[in-house]
Amino acid sequence: LHPRTQAAKESIFPKMSQLAQRLGAVNLGQGFPSNPPPPFLLEAVRRALGRYDQYAPPAGFPALREALAEEFAAEPESVVVTSGATEALYVLLQSLAGPGDEVVVLEPFFDVYLPDAFLAGAEVRLVRLDLTPEGFRLDMTALERAITPRTRLLLLNTPMNPTGRLFGEAELKAIARLAQKHDLFLVSDEVYDELYFGERPRRLRDLAPERTFTVGSAGKRLEATGYRVGWIVGPKEFMPRLAGMRQWTSFSAPTPLQAGVAEALRAARREGFYEALRESYRKRRDLLAQGLRALGLRVYVPEGTYFLMAELPGWDAFSLVEAARVALIPASAFYREDPPKDLFRFAFCKSEEELSLALERLALVV
Ligand code: GLN
């Protein structure tokens, strides 16, 4: 096999899920909800089956491009639908960077960014967030120092997996200014865009529309991660080429699911689904954070996403899942080297019962 298949190293997320299942562990590892998706999504997909069963255009099912254009105050031509945000990121890296180019990524990072850059032949420059007792901080001077004449793009994730950080307006403006000054593209992974616990955050796209590609995910928004419907919203002039590129990966995303998602995105707004979702996640975040604090753990409370990081001294994730039957993702999955000691990611997109059970089990081993 070609040496590039070194990127085929198995991701820890499915590995941990399998282990959790085998051991009967509470799975706070891989980020997928344990509740079913909203009925309006299931009904819309059922209506689409038998009706929209053949290829969709590579750029996306027209009604979905229109629904997304409304969401992002863009034109349908600015939207390309992908098979999950994972494909969106792959296509973007293939399209924006190549050998000799550098990509700036914040660390800790979602695991997919590094193999995507590697497969594009580009080099990654990491900028590590400072971990202070108050949480993860981005040092703008460190970010600017990482930029060289070879830098092509800056890859950002907000709200951020795994830290739960969310970049505020001042930070986004500083990032947009840096991108302008150094003429960089911005890839903004916003799959958790509806999952924030304070004020609605600004979008990088609105601050630097000419250079920002926003990545999104129906799976994350509508609690159906298996549907594999994602999207890219970006400057109109580049989108036909991106649609062209994604022809050679999966050609098009599943048509009935795109049709179902198109309807469901509108229903979600109409029915106040995201407000209810945020409320329910805020409750679960607080339950988990308070429970872990009561066990004496240091907790970094997230501003968004359904992840929380906390320090659990003396364990590695593999012995912990055996001993406590609670599956977590170790910080090492999100760092290239030298991860902070004792740091784990807890997913709280699980039921309150599961979260309470996990806390009971952890109480026996801390
Ligand atoms: N986004 C999910 C997480 O961080 C996992 C996605 C995946 O398994 N590829 O847990």
TrEMBL record:
Q: Which SUPFAM superfamilies match?
A: PLP-dependent transferases (SSF53383)
Q: GO: which molecular function terms?
A: transaminase activity
Cofactor(s) the protein needs: pyridoxal 5'-phosphate
Answer whether the UniProt record assigns the keyword Metal-binding to this protein.
no
Reply yes or no: does the keyword Membrane apply: no
Q: Kindly name one Pfam family recorded for this protein.
A: Aminotran_1_2
Q: Which UniProt keywords apply?
A: Aminotransferase, Pyridoxal phosphate, Transferase
Q: Which residues form the Aminotransferase class I/classII large domain?
A: 26-362
Protein name, per record: Pyridoxal phosphate-dependent aminotransferase
Source organism of this protein record: Thermus composti
